[in-house]
Amino acid sequence: MHAYQDMVFSTAARLLGNEAQAQDVAQDVFLKAYENFEQLRTSATKGGWLKTVTTNLSLNHLSRYRRRWRLFSESRREQATEEESQLDLAVADGALDGIAAEERRLLVEQALRRLPEHQRVPLVLYHFEELSYEDIARQLRISLAKVRSDILRARVRLANLLARAQL
User: Fold this and answer.
1) At what angle do helices 46-70 and 19-35 cross, to 10 degrees?
2) How far is 128 from 148, CA to CA, in rounded Å?
C-alpha cells in the first residue's frame, strides 16, 4: 500500500484543494483498504480501487462540507463581465512552456487550489481522473451544461493563474 500513498494523497488534494482535508481523506481510504486487505492483497486492480475510493470519499467530503457551510453563509455566484471574459480568453496556451516538469506540477497544484470548488472538482475529475462529462454530471448530481461551463471557466481561470505565476 505504500506504493499508492502519493497517488491517494495527490488525488484527494486536487479534488479538495486543502492538504489537511486531503490527509484526512487519505487516512480514511487506507482504513477502507485495511478492511478489504484480503481481497486487495492479490488484486491486480488495487490501484484503481484506491483511486475510486479516494475520489468518492473526497466528493462525499465536499458534499458534507458544502451542506454544513450553507447553514452559515449565503452562496454567491461569480458573474464575470463580458470584458473580463474576453481578457481571460486572450491568455496564451503555452504559459508553462520551458518550465521543468516538477516546477510545472507545483505551479499547477498551487493554481488548482485557488480555483473555486465548483470549478476545481469537475476540472480535476475530467483531466486527472479521466471521467467523461456525463460521468461527472452524474457523480456531482449537476446538469451536463453546468459541467461543461464549469470546466471551461476553470480552464480559463487556471490559464490566467498560471500566466500570472510566470510574470
Assistant:
1) 130
2) 16
Q: What pTM does this model have?
A: 0.60
DSSP state of 2: G
Q: For residue range 99-140, what is the model confidence (pLDDT) as tens digits?
A: 676 787 788 888 899 999 999 999 999 988 889 999 999 999
Backbone φ and ψ for 77, nearest 5 degrees, come out as -85, 140
Which residues 6+ apart lie within 8 Å of 55 measured at CB? 11, 15, 125, 129
Q: DSSP character for 166? A: T
Give Cα 75 distance to the centre of its chain: 20
Lookup result for grid cell 478489504: 36
**Domains along the chain?**
2-70 (1.10.1740.10), 82-165 (1.10.10.10)
C-alpha cell at 8: 491517494
How many whole angstroms separate alpha carbon 113 and alpha carbon 121? 10
For residues 86 and 122, what is the distance between their CA atoms, to the nearest angstrom?
A: 23
CA distances from 159 to 74, 77, 89, 108, 163 (A): 28, 21, 9, 9, 6
